[in-house]
Amino acid sequence: MSLLDLDQNKVTYFDLNNELNIPKDNTIQLGKDHEALEAFLAENVEPNTMQFYSLRARFDYLLNDNFIDPKLVDQYDFSFIEKLYDYLEAQHFQFKSFMAAYKFYAQYALKTNDGAYYIERYIDRVAMNALFYGNGDETLALNLADEMIHQRYQPATPSFLNAGRARRGELVSCFILQATDDMNAIGRTINSALQLSKIGGGVGINLSNLREAGAPIKGIENAASGVVPVMKLLEDSFSYSNQMGQRNGAGVVYLSIFHPDIMAFLATKKENADEKVRIKTLSMGLTVPDKFYELTKNNADMYLFSPYDVEREYGTPFNYVDITAEYDNMVANPNIKKTKINARNLENELSKMQQESGYPYVINIDTVNKANPIAGKVISSNLCSEILQVQKPSVINNEQQYETLGTDVSCNLGSTNIVNLMESTDLEKSVDTMVRALTFVSDASDLDMVPSVQNGNRELHAIGLGAMGLHAMFAKNHMYYGDDEALDFTNMYFMMLNFYTLKASNKIARERQTTFYDFDKSTYADGSYFDKYIDEVWAPKTQKVQEIFAKHHLPTAADWQQLKQDVMTDGLYNAYRMAVAPTGSISYVNDATASLHPIINKIEERQEKKIGKIYYPAPYLDADTIPYYESAYNIDMRKVIDVYAEAQQHVDQGMAMTLFMRSTIPEGLYEWKNGRTDKMTTRDLNILRNYAYRKDIKSIYYIRTYTDDMEEFGVNECESCSI
Description:
Blueprint: H1 13-18, H2 31-45, H3 55-64, H4 70-74, H5 78-90, H6 98-107, H7 122-134, H8 138-149, E1 153-155, H9 157-162, E2 174-178, H10 183-199, E3 202-206, H11 227-240, E4 251-256, H12 262-267, E5 283-288, H13 290-297, E6 301-305, H14 307-314, H15 323-332, E7 338-342, H16 343-357, E8 361-364, H17 365-371, E9 395-396, E10 402-404, E11 409-417, H18 418-421, H19 427-444, H20 451-460, E12 463-468, H21 470-476, H22 484-512, H23 531-535, H24 543-548, H25 557-570, H26 585-589, E13 603-608, E14 612-617, H27 637-648, E15 658-662, H28 682-694, E16 699-700, E17 702-706, E18 712-713
Helix pairs in contact: 2-6, 5-7, 5-8, 7-8, 8-19, 10-11, 16-28, 19-22, 22-25, 22-27
Family: Belongs to the ribonucleoside diphosphate reductase large chain family.
GO cellular component, one term: ribonucleoside-diphosphate reductase complex
Protein name: Ribonucleoside-diphosphate reductase
């Protein structure tokens, strides 16, 4: 019997936790959660944790039974490992909620092979991560232990889960591939998807280069099958392949909104779609250039272009043609086959699908590339829409080998816990430590089964440091989500994070005398990236945010000027540094609100497999903070977009921004509903997407809808890429 399936008649913690959902004297019984936590530790954890008479005995057992990697231990004198443990023990770490402890022991703690005993506490998992990412550097290992035991830094789930284990999956969170328009490339892409899904997180694949259904093949008309059959092949591949049984395989396919198969692509998610074409488990997204927004604004017809013809005319795959710049030329070119539809009809179809399924994600691809500081073009994204990096196409020969080795994307993620990081006494040291931990994952990743991904990783050394707990920070400091103080704080926090990640990457480049590939062609190298920070004033605008940052050094124009000179002189090691991923179960362990989103409920209800319902109170919830914890479903989504826009101006990649909608809109929430139906319509989503576009939002991840029968549908738990 699983440790977490203990006889529920003999334990009290589930009943105590459930009392959170039963008000007493019209008050939430918050104390019951602490009682449930204490009961869980006493009734479940303590009696079922394997005990050892010494730390040496514990490590001998773990090594002899192949639980931990001996190479990890061999990097250090054991006296240092004892010193590290002495430090961790002295911090007296305590879980803050029942859910935090439950999630850790259910999903992250190492257990005996028969599942009968825990052989890891939280500090043991922190120690494994610190030793692993320290890579023999004792100072870095101690610094990492300090950041993690105080929950200022949290590696992504695959990294945190697998670090130091002898039997493990890979550490990388996500990958991005693209297929070019030939059978060799399609076959190689499917093989790559299988390989990457087996070892790591989610895989994003762009299919825009593929010729449309009905296009000719070697002069034979109507021979091509288009993108939908390839989607079906990929869906089956992901279902088959998973990360050594630890995580489900998951993928997303992206298509340009100007691809002729766009309507068939969207139709695969319809509930009444034919089983031959219906896509059930594969996620889907669109790359949307500025031209589409212009055409919908003017209620104009739009043309969809044959990728095969475009590639012949431009000599480059469809993904690499600037549709906004070349649109009129392509319309006028008789050698390019095109299909005419109405732009607003397509816009409405897009919104219908988001209402029904939550899909597709939307990548505002021109917005992405205008802000991209790196030479090259971003053409796609990952499973959760926050990774946005340049790619180069490969050429595959008949032997499935690379005639031209391009670059695809791998990214490893981590997150700052905003509330706890703001308590740091040395923000620069904290962020430097985090960047070095993430960089180690990039340096240590061996991805030779997909050479294009290996090549991209070796050229760019890309990482993705993000954040969670923003709503908790607002509530704790009595700020309403999306108000002026909240926007002010978000702006300052991410400006600071940008500065210190740049400084850390510059230090690594100086130490190693190495920069990312083509650094000299970037806006970092010519210094123009830094001009907005030097020419504009970046300081808190509100009294409260001034007070919050009073003990920290916020970079000044002079600091930015010095950093500009340092980067122009010595470069950067990491081509990309920041990305805000969704945060899943690990945010519970950290007692943090998810990512940058508003909470859903003050007391969140989770269905835990066979266990039943578990309740989780929002962090720092008490009589003083309750008014500041408004549900996402009751908040004007323009406030969410505003918050993300403040962060996005400082984040070099993207952010997984979800929009939360109600099937019946509360009166007064959106002024355009006045005098119209109170039901959510395609118009509502059209307006919000256009608002996000005007605010320079790079991506919209998912649409979640709360229905009139009090259920959510279209909920996507991105486990593969979530932190």
